[in-house]
Protein: guanylate kinase
Amino acid sequence: MGEAPAFVVDDLLQNQDGFDSKSKGCKITTTIGDKTYVIGGENDESTLSLEVQIFDKATGNCATPIVLGAKPSSCKGLSAVSLNDDRILIVKKGSTPDDCIWFLEVDTRFVREQKKIQGTDVVAWSRGARGYAEKPVVISGPSGVGKGTLISMLMKEFPSMFGFSVSHTTRAPRCMEKDGVHYHFTERSVMEKELKDGKFLEHALVHGNLYGTSIEAVEAVTDTGKRCILDIDVQGARSVKASSLEAIFIFICPPSMEELETRLRSRGTETEEQILKRLQNAKKEMEQGQSSGIFDHILYNDNLDECYESLKKLLGLDGAAAATQRSAPQGIDLPADHSVSKMDNKIIINCGTAELKKASKNLIVLDVSSLKGGSSWTDKRA
Ligand SMILES: Nc1ncnc2c1ncn2[C@@H]1O[C@H](COP(=O)(O)OP(=O)(O)OP(=O)(O)O)[C@@H](O)[C@H]1O
Ligand SMILES: Nc1nc2c(ncn2[C@@H]2O[C@H](COP(=O)(O)O)[C@@H](O)[C@H]2O)c(=O)[nH]1
Structure:
């Protein structure tokens, strides 16, 4: 049992018009079912930190959950509204436009999976963005087929649109590879501990080394409003497909196994033993890639420029579509003095300052569907 909450439980009544959050001192409470989520805590005289406690109305217990995801920075106050009973929308007062909307996932599929792994209460923070935050792109294919080359071309042409999910690996760095940029190079025992702690979206043993995508790596990209690209093997793609991350899955094929071997050898990064192992694994990956039903698209990387054009086309990046998508996601410029409520599928932010009221600019209405948070972690419940 945790500490008693700093508010009177009887106060936590849900009122009739959909407003289900109450502010008590420096904390805000939102009730979903039997649970009341208490968010906030005094940081210093002028700011609040965003701690989370869960009060269970059925048992009368208060617990501090495991909190996943990057925690929002402290703020001058907050408002909260529950969305679909699985996430709480938090609006931070007096924060910058790109930092004022956050989601606390309390019962999404991802959180439920994490609760099972951890055996205790779990919640997860994700930053909200307005506008597009499109589905992540998972790119798989045998070693040496050109995945990294194609991804580099995409990142170079569209730097503000895409962000690379930096994987963890236990393999040794190649001479030009930088820790934290190409991979997070790590010790096996450290990675195994982190896997146990539920920090990874997926992982696999690939060519004799552990590789994995941490939840933080994907969130580091989606938090910036960019579209996340994952370069992972077929086993990893299968795990992501089964997870709550809604993505587009692309498999890249070589024109032939001979050409694949030529590319691997000419890259000059592997020992002879490694090359043979990778070519052996390539045969299995080719079979699985083309027949497993995981992949939405299969591309042939024979001529590099042609393959890149096909990749852009299927990502909607050819011609006019690309120009529209290049625009940055929008933030919301919120004054410190406001209140938040929910009506049907709309979030209504009432900015209470006299000047704004006079100018009839005191209401901001947001369509819930235009808000992306935890960007693509969706609930796949029917
Ligand atoms: N279409 C192509 N034609 C000829 N060479 C290519 C083509 N695409 C990529 N290459 C070359 O093939 C080599 C392997 O490419 P790359 O490193 O991008 O493969 P990869 O799929 O990312 O491999 P890994 O899975 O091992 O990381 C590189 O030297 C790259 O320059
Ligand atoms: N399942 C995962 N596979 C990954 C991840 N990061 C990379 N990879 C795949 O490993 C092989 C080998 O990569 P290399 O850099 O050693 O040549 C390649 O097929 C990658 O797609 C990951 O996080 N998870």
